[in-house]
Structures are given as structure tokens and as C-alpha cells.
Design a protein that fits this description.
This protein has 352 residues and is mainly β. The protein has six helices and 24 strands. Strands 1-2-3-6-5-4 form a six-stranded antiparallel beta barrel. A six-stranded antiparallel β-sheet has the order 7-10-13-16-15-14, with no helix packed on it. It is globular, with a radius of gyration of 26 Å. The termini are far apart.
């Protein structure tokens, strides 16, 4: 027959070996009771897997009513992360932010409503469309407010130059989309100028520049840019190998070797920026000379963490806003030179 103290210790071990474990188990039990009885729990599908999740409203003042954001709360056993697609309320949502809980009793993430479904060809010869022909849901935001909305050819010709920012899930199929690819978005065609894989791991951010629609190559019905090779649509020939004879391999050209040795450029400056401090970022050639920048790009999904003090065709001077919630974020500053965009990734750190 066991003593009272032995029986007591056995019961305590069921709750946890120590006080910290027991407190965590109580917290976990409180969440399980909440999750079981809350009215905000709904059936949904997360990355193709049917499950249940709690959906909570998010203050619209935090994003200036640009999107109907929600919080999604799920047990730790549910597989979900930044970039996951959530099908709920007859709509598709995308996970944008994952909260690291100080008491890991559950998972809490922020989701945005995807407002566009983007399609492109993964194989032009066989006309294969991404995601088995369905395209990928994406969150698209107009970035023209950061620019004039026009560019100039020569001195007098004004061309449309609207910009779009696209957030889409970071998977091999989206990684394979290269800079220069043309995409059809809401009746207009845009060209990818820059792809950011750094600022928000799990998502790809494409910066798009407005382009001209081409009825010879773009399929208006399928809403896919560059669906046809020029002249292919009229002939109905979908076999590119027949449309163009194989060309013999070119002999090595000395001029191409010289182009490979062309001077490269990059953006130089601090990669860690403290709150309320001022920093200068300069576009520099590998030979030490400054580069002529045609455009500096600071557009972000939310408010920019920088105040722009001044900028010219070589450098940009920014001051980090004194807002503590920015600490830990990674942001980018991009520069456009001769139609090519490069960026520098900057991590926001504490003031002191």
C-alpha cells in the first residue's frame, strides 16, 4: 500500500513534473476549452487539407482599409505557415504573418484575402498552365502611388508606367518565373521588374511595371500573356520545333566574352539599421564609380519604415522611423539602372 505522499506525487506528475510544466498544461487546457466552444470556429481547407480553425476580425485601421485581414487560430498540430492558402467562406486567403507565441499553446497567424488569380505558362510548347491550369491566388496591390505613373521615351513621348506589387506563395513553380516575364492582371499586362525572396520568407514579392498588350502573342480569353509565339496564333501551329528550324550552334564570340566581364553594380550601405538613425545608400560599380540611378523604389505592403530625407541619381538618404514594432523586420531598398533592378536587404534593429 502506497503512502499518502507517494500517491500525491503520482497525481502531481500527471499534471506535470514541475510547476512550469503544470502551468503550461493548464494554459493548454484553457485553449482547448476555448477552441472547442467558440462560435468563431469554422470548417476550412488549409493547403488542400480539410480542418477547422478559429477566425477573428482584425482592425481595419491598421492597414488603411486596403484589405479585409483576419487572424486565424489553430492548434499546434495543424500544419500551416506563411504562404499557406486557406479556403474559407467561399474565398481563398493567404497567410502573411506568423506570430511567435511566448507561450506556445497554439498558433496564431494573419491572413489576407487574395484578390487575383494569376496564370502563366510553365511549358510554352505543350501550353501547360501553372497549378494544373488553375493559376495561383495572389494578393495584388497598386504601387503607382509611389511614382508619377508615367515614364518618358526620349524627351516628349509619355508612356504608361503603372506599378503593381504581387505577393504569391514561394514554391518551385513561382521561383521559376524569371524577371522579364509578362503577366496578365485584371485586363492589363505587366512585366516583372524585380523579385524579392528576402523580406517575407514563405512569399515571393514581384514588382511589376505596366506593359503593352500584344494581340499576336497574348491570349485575351485565357488571360495569359505570351501564350503564343509571334505568328503561331494565325497558323494554329502549337509545335514550336516545326515553326522554327533548328539553328546550328554559334561559334564563340569574343564580344560575348567581353560582355561577361562587364562592370557589375550594387547598392552599398548598412544592412542593419537602428530605429531613428539616418543612413545613406549608394549605387556603386565594382570599379568604385557611382552609378546613374533612374529610380529608387521603397514601396512596401504596409507603411514604409523609412522617412526619405533626400535622393539623387546616385544615392538615397533615409531615416528609420522610431516605432518599436519595426524591430526584427527585413525591408528592401531597390534601385533601377538601365531597366535592371537590384536591391539591398536591411534588417531593422533596436535604437541602442
Amino acid at each position: 500500500m502506497s503512502s499518502f505522499s507517494t500517491s500525491y506525487r503520482r497525481k502531481q506528475k500527471i499534471l506535470g513534473d514541475n510547476r512550469v510544466t503544470r502551468n503550461y498544461n493548464r494554459q493548454l487546457e484553457e485553449f482547448n476549452l476555448f477552441y472547442q466552444d467558440t462560435l468563431t470556429k469554422h470548417d476550412c481547407v488549409i493547403d488542400g487539407v480539410p480542418t477547422q480553425a478559429v477566425f477573428q476580425d482584425h482592425s481595419q485601421s491598421n492597414n488603411k482599409d486596403l484589405s479585409d485581414d483576419k487572424y486565424v487560430v489553430v492548434p499546434n498540430s495543424v500544419k500551416i505557415g506563411v504562404g499557406s492558402y486557406v479556403e474559407w467562406a467561399d474565398e481563398t486567403w493567404m497567410v502573411f504573418t506568423e506570430e511567435y507565441k511566448t507561450i506556445p499553446s497554439h498558433q496564431q497567424l494573419k491572413i489576407k484575402h487574395t484578390n487575383r488569380r494569376i496564370k502563366w505558362l510553365t511549358n510554352r510548347d505543350s501550353k501547360l498552365i501553372c497549378n494544373f491550369g488553375k493559376g495561383w491566388p495572389a494578393y495584388v496591390q497598386n504601387q503607382t502611388l509611389y511614382t508619377l505613373g508615367v515614364s518618358f521615351s526620349g524627351q516628349n513621348i509619355a508612356l504608361a508606367n503603372a506599378k503593381m506589387s504581387v505577393y504569391i506563395k514561394d514554391i518551385p513553380e513561382t521561383r521559376a518565373v524569371s524577371v522579364g516575364t509578362r503577366l496578365w492582371i485584371s485586363g492589363q499586362v505587366y512585366k516583372i521588374e524585380f523579385a524579392d525572396y528576402v523580406s517575407r520568407p514563405g512569399l515571393v514579392n514581384w514588382l511589376l511595371d505596366e506593359d503593352t498588350k500584344n494581340p499576336e502573342t497574348d491570349d485575351y480569353d485565357l488571360e495569359i500573356a505570351d501564350y503564343w509565339v509571334s505568328g503561331q496564333k494565325e497558323t494554329g501551329n502549337t509545335n514550336n520545333s516545326e515553326a522554327k528550324p533548328a539553328m546550328p550552334p554559334k561559334a564563340p564570340d569574343s564580344s560575348s566574352e567581353e560582355e561577361k566581364k562587364e562592370v557589375e553594380w550594387s547598392i552599398e550601405g548598412n544592412k542593419k539599421a537602428r530605429l531613428s538613425h539616418t543612413y545613406v545608400y549608394t549605387a556603386m560599380n565594382s570599379d568604385g564609380t557611382k552609378v546613374d540611378v533612374s529610380e529608387w523604389i521603397l514601396g512596401t505592403l504596409e507603411d514604409s519604415p523609412f522617412y526619405v530625407k533626400e535622393k539623387d541619381n546616385h544615392s538615397i538618404t533615409v531615416t528609420v522611423k522610431d516605432i518599436f514594432k519595426l524591430v526584427g523586420q527585413t525591408v528592401t531598398i531597390a534601385a533601377k539602372v538601365d531597366g535592371k533592378i537590384k536591391n539591398i536587404a536591411i534588417k531593422i534593429i533596436k535604437k541602442f
